[in-house]
Structure formats: structure tokens, C-alpha cells
TrEMBL record:
Transmembrane intervals: none
InterPro entries registered for this protein in UniProt: SERF-like_N
Biased composition (Basic and acidic residues): 1-15, 39-58
Biased amino acid composition, Gly residues: 66-76
Name of this chain's protein: Small EDRK-rich factor-like N-terminal domain-containing protein
Domain called Small EDRK-rich factor-like N-terminal: residue spans: 1-39
Organism: Rotaria sordida
Pfam families: SERF-like_N
Region of interest (Disordered), ranges: 1-76
Secretion signal span: none
Length: 76
């Protein structure tokens, strides 16, 4: 069983897909005009902000949870 032209067509289609994806990271609207190092610094700052927010939420959640848990324990 030979596949004929199907294999060659699949290779062409695959190569077209990979050409479009190779440039997508550097050409997105948010990344235009930024070097790799600038993008890394920007992303690191965003991650620090997200971590701080998560820590604040966790701290606020622990205060509420511990208060509610203490009341439930004393009722028993």
C-alpha cells in the first residue's frame, strides 16, 4: 500500500503551521518593541504582584478560617 502524494501534502501543511508559530511570541501585540530581557523583567514584575496578592488573600483567609474554627471547637 503506497500513500501516494498524501505524505508530501502533510509535510507541506505541517511546515506552514510551524512557520506561523515560530514568530508568534515575539510578534504579539503585548510583546512588540520589547527585547527578550525586557519581556522577562515585565513578566517577573507581574508574577511578583500576583504572588503578593495571593499571599494577602491567603493571610486574610487564614484569619477568617482560624476564627471560625476556634468558635466551632469551643462549641463542642
Amino acid at each position: 500500500m503506497t500513500r501516494g502524494n498524501q505524505r508530501e501534502l502533510a509535510r507541506e501543511k505541517n511546515s506552514k503551521n510551524h512557520k506561523n508559530k515560530a514568530n508568534s511570541v515575539s510578534e504579539t501585540e503585548a510583546n512588540k518593541g520589547l527585547s527578550l530581557q525586557e519581556r522577562q523583567l515585565r513578566d517577573a514584575m507581574r508574577m511578583r504582584e500576583k504572588q503578593q496578592l495571593a499571599e494577602q488573600k491567603k493571610a486574610a483567609g487564614n484569619n477568617n478560617a482560624s476564627g471560625g474554627g476556634g468558635a466551632a471547637a469551643s462549641a463542642n
